Description:
- The chain is an all-alpha fold.
- It has one domain (2-91): Chorismate mutase (Chorismate Mutase Domain, subunit A, Up-down Bundle), CATH 1.20.59.
- The chain is 85% helix and 0% strand.
- Helix 1 runs parallel beside helix 3 and helix 2 (48-65) packs antiparallel against helix 3.
- The chain is elongated, with a radius of gyration of 17 Å.
- 5% of the residues are buried.
- Its EC number is 5.4.99.5.
- Residues 1-91 form the Chorismate mutase domain.
Amino acid sequence: MTEPVLDDLRQRIDRLDAILIHTLAERFRQTAKVGDLKAKGGMPALDPDREAQQRARIEALATETGLDPEFARQIHGLIVDRVKENHRKISGEQ
């Protein structure tokens, strides 16, 4: 009885993992477009005000959904660090 339930739960987790990866890929495609626009417009690659707004939004979303806000900030921070690195490359700041 336990085995079918465990298998079902693992399949659900696998589907969620796939959704996360596809979502991250799409997020990076969109942020690359932002980086291109910033570079073409002569805007700085980094936007500290936007980052602060996003951190607050992520914390609120995490709290609202029952996810540990610190964990959410850590994950989001990893993503944002990679985006900033990509924007610097696009703009030639590195």
